[in-house]
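Study this fold:
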Amino acid sequence: MKKQKSLGNKGFSLVELIIVIAIMAILVGVLAPQLIKYVERSRQAKDRQMVDALHTAVTTALLDPDITDGPGATSSSDMADFIGTGSKFKDAISDILKTSTPGDIGGNSFESNAFHGQGITVTIDPKMNVKCAVTHVSGSDATDIVIE
């Protein structure tokens, strides 16, 4: 003997499904811009961390007594010129940063829209204090990265 389905249990009506979809669309419309802001802030934090790592690497390489070919007091926005090629200074920075091409840091390696394509300016004063700076793209709400 088969049991018959009750007539009151027919499932969701089309109107109920449309209301649920409309509510979900409103939630996505409200939350998506906030999520995009948080993702951009996260990318900017990662860019700041990369510049900080470069600052630490340059400072550490300058303090190493075994490295005699480091730059003196200088300022450069072109990392390839700053680091040079085939030098102990470059090798030390590569070891610290765990990358084989420290000259490629900056510019296109920035992930956020605020710093993408920008170069890192590294300045070493006569007292061997290191300053790394990156200017944000105009129109973005980010602040410049300056690590001394």
Q: What stands out?
A: Helices lie at 14-63, 79-83, 88-97. The chain is about 45% helix and 10% strand. Strands lie at 74-76, 121-124, 130-134, 145-147. Residues 14-147 form one domain.
